[in-house]
Design brief:
Elements (H helix, E strand, L loop, with lengths): L1 E5 L6 H16 L7 E6 L4 E2 L5 E2 L3 E2 L8 E4 L5 H4 L3 H8 L6 E5 L2 H7 L7 E2 L6 H4 L5 E2 L4 E3 L3 E4 L4 H13 L2 H11 L5
Parallel strand pairs: 1-2, 1-6, 2-5, 6-7, 7-11, 8-9
Antiparallel strand pairs: 3-4, 10-11
Helix pairs in contact: 1-6, 6-7
């Protein structure tokens, strides 16, 4: 199972880390030994909205060979939806069986055309921006449309990570990871 975590300048780091942490534990805890991931970006260095610098493991590579695409959010998504180079790069994930977003990362999935005819969610402050890209904006923490899953705000990334652990493995895996993370809310 190959996963691409997409990061970009101006992302909200918690959108990435919140979902990354529970998912990486699938491999590290031996619950899904074949779980692999790359941190993907278009630039060799990414800076979040507050100056935290991150180094991707893949730069500019096609996203077509992954099983799961995970896109973080952040205020920069509002401009990136109009960045042809970035959106064309996201579109290379068309063959990915599962596309996932946290917070306003849904805007990027929408701009790439992945939300057409689907229900989706994002941070409440971006509901109106998401509406043109999907069938319906839903005020839920997680919206699962089978091949596309979106999560609402920054902290919902942790919930989504645990949700995916359950979906990819089973409830027991989710519960083990949740316990190790000392996360009592989901």
């Amino acid at each position: 199972m190959r996963t691409a975590f997409v990061i970009f300048n101006g992302l909200t780091a918690m959108d990435f880390i919140g979902i990354y942490d529970p998912l990486r534990r699938l491999k590290n805890m031996g619950l899904m030994p074949d779980f692999q991931w790359d941190i993907c970006a278009l630039s060799p260095e990414v800076e979040d909205e507050n100056g935290l610098v991150m180094i991707p493991t893949k730069v500019g590579a096609s996203l077509s060979s992954y099983d799961i695409l995970i896109v973080a959010g952040g205020l920069a998504t509002r401009k990136l939806v109009n960045n042809t180079e970035f959106i064309n790069w996201i579109k290379t994930a068309e063959p990915c069986p599962l596309k996932v977003s946290v917070c306003s990362g849904a805007l990027l999935l929408g701009a790439a055309g992945f939300l057409k005819g689907k229900k989706a969610t994002t941070h409440r402050s971006a509901f109106d921006l998401l509406q043109p890209y999907c069938q319906e904006v839903v005020d839920s923490r997680i919206v699962d449309e089978d091949d596309v899953i979106t999560a609402r705000g920054v902290t919902s990334g942790i919930d989504l990570g645990l949700y995916l652990c359950e979906k990819l493995v089973n409830t027991g895996a989710k519960q083990q990871i949740q316990q190790i993370m000392d996360y009592p809310y989901f």
